[in-house]
Every structure is written in C-alpha cells, then in structure tokens.
Amino acid sequence: MKDLSKIHQPITELFPQPKSSRDWEKYRLSQEQLDFFHENGYLSGIKLLDEHQIEVLRSELEKLQDPEHPLNHLFHEYHSNESDDPNTVLFHSLGHWRISPAFHDVIWNPAFVMAAYQLLGERGLRFWHDQLFCKPAKHGGVVAWHQDYSYWTRTIKMQHLTCWCGLDDADEENGCLHYIPKSHTWGLLEKPALAGDMDGLKAFMTEDQLKNFKPIAIPLKAGYATFHHPLMVHGSYANRSERSRRAFVLNAFADGTISNSDEELLKGVPVISKGEKMEGQFFPLLFSANLV
Q1: For residue 192, how many other CB atoms are within 10 A of its CB?
Q2: Is residue 64 one of the residues assigned to a domain?
Q3: Domain limits for position 213
Q4: Which end of the chain is more exposed for a tag (fewer CB within 10 A), N or C?
C-alpha cells in the first residue's frame, strides 16, 4: 500500500479518459451555464457519476472512515466529528485521494475536469485538495456559513474553484448545501469555525449584506455536483432525517497560483516557499488545452 499522490494519472478504469479533443466535447458546459455561474456565483446539477461509480466510492468511503485504517496517517486532516457536540456529528477529512484508488481517480473524472477548466477561464487546471463531509442520519451536524477562500489565503492570487458532489440524495431534510446567490461579489469576509455556530459569519457582514442574506437550497441527486466561486457564501443545516448525507469535495485552482506562506500549506506536504509556484507531487496539473 502506497501514497497515491505520487501517481498523476488514473490508476483504475472507473473514469474512462477521452482520447481526443472531440471526445472532450461532450463534457463541455454551455455558454448559458457559464454565464449563470459568473452572475450568481454557482452552477448546480452537473452529473459527475453513474450508479456504479457511486457504489464504488461509497464502499471506499466506508473504509476511509475507519480511524484504524492502515493509511490513516496520510490524511492532511481527519475529524471523526469536527463538531464539539457529540450529538451533532460532522465527519470531515482532507487527503483521501492519497489513500483510496477511486477517490484518487475521481480527480481525473472528465466531467469534473472539463467543467472546472471552463469555469476557471480555460486556463491550466491544478488540484488543490479534496474533502469528505458526512452527516449521519438523525444527528448530523451543520457546516457554518463561510467562504472557502477565507481558509485559503495562504495561496494567491484568488483563482480557485470548489466542486461538491453527493454520494447520497441531498435535500433540505438531510442537510443539503445552501447558497446566498451573488454573495461572491461581497469581497472577502472573516472566517468562522466550520462546524461552529451556523450564523457566526453574520457578525462580520454589513447591513446591506444582511439584507440580501437570502439562502436558497441546492437539492441534488447522488452523483450530481454543484460548483461555486471561492467567495460564495454557503453552508448546510443539520441532518435530522432518517437518511445519511455523504459528499466529497474537489478543490482546484488555475495553474500559476503561488504560495503565500512559508509554513506548511497542508499537513504532510513539504513547505512551498512564499512566492513559489504551487506544483509538484501534491498539486498535479489535471488539464490544459495543450494536453489534448
């Protein structure tokens, strides 16, 4: 068993790779979809996975959640419950692509890669890091309102993107994602505790922002994804339903992003000095036009 971050190509047949530029075309977003993203800060309902892929990822997720997994030390972060309250559970981890073949390969899923490439302006696409968010039935915790880039200022300039994909059907009953449309135009706000007070971010908002704080739910069938801007205000409420809500997140940035810190960017990743380009073993290039 080895660290899969050393392999910068798919290692299974789970996500067949396009062989030519023409093969990539079926994954392209429409201009209407791109315009919606840039106006509202998000784009939802993009199919990433078929039923077989969902089942394989669910199976590997179950193994990853075992704290006794022999490669648990490869996680950048591992929280059996990031909430302080044992009655509201939020499993959250980073770095599972290093451990699981299926989660390693989903980074090269053509449906994700092409959408992310387009949404970032058709520049070279690099992997930033992955996440797992799992809310068990009946006592699943919240993910507080936040902006992703408030946790990522250690990398500049801001040219990042988030993709959230469900492994269960997600709706308002079991804690689906919620957005504040057009909040990506509000600028960078302070960062709250991710599993803390749901409304902690509101303390840092202006009167005008509070007036326009109108959440919309993003229900998604398993295997479908939503993409959002790094300044999009988003969060998710508790799961009190009889169903689990499991999801993974892929975070990416445009090639040319640089380190803004002389400290460790992710646990277990060698320091990339401030001003140096984000690349190498942990930040592979996923796509650029000259690769096809």
Answers
A1: 21
A2: yes
A3: 47-272
A4: N
